[in-house]
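Ticket #4471: structure output looks truncated?

Reporter: J.K.
Steps to reproduce: submitted the chain below (112 residues) through the standard prediction queue, then opened the result file.
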Amino acid sequence: VQLVESGGGLVQPGGSLRLSCAASGFTFSSYSMHWVRQAPGKGRELVAQIYSAGGRTDAADSVRDRFIISQDNAKNTLYLQIFSLKTEDTAVYYCANSDFRYWGQGTQVTVS
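Returned output as attached by the reporter:
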């Protein structure tokens, strides 16, 4: 199993980003997936998830109106679209598989 995130960078407050997570080594469409972030000096925070059954999505209350999780099963890729970025969104963003056994290396998002 391999998960590779990309799409992070330095963005001004109010900007947008789309993060990607390329998955391989398992049947991507059959498993729920998660986006987790870790801000400097803080613990990991689950921000969004997409469920394999029916594609239902969920997001943390703190980001629900600005974060959209989606996936493209044909490309084995998970996405996180982030709107109206805030300085407090600065973090390393990780994708993880359904049981959190596998994680990507993370992609840095800096809002400044």
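Triage note (M.O.): checked the attachment and the full token line is present. The longest strand covers residues 17-24.
Status: closed, working as intended.
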